[in-house]
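Progress report, Aim 2. The chain analyzed during this reporting quarter is listed below.
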Amino acid sequence: MKTLAELEQEYNKKKDQYETALTAVAHAGSNKVEVQRAAAILDSSYDECQKAYTEWQEAVNNA
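Predicted structure tokens for the chain:
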């Protein structure tokens, strides 16, 4: 089982990945393929970030 610090670190890493993906969408411009690819990465990153956040918060609440 992961410690609270490890869960928080994992969440922060996923949050950084999400923010990077968000920036990529913002800079994708008008190239449709590039925008679609960046949006898919953003969507995946968001899901991973939410999952990591939920795990961390559940651990905090159960501590």
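The helical segments are 4-26, 32-62. The two ends are 13 Å apart (CA to CA). These observations will guide the mutagenesis work planned for the next reporting period.
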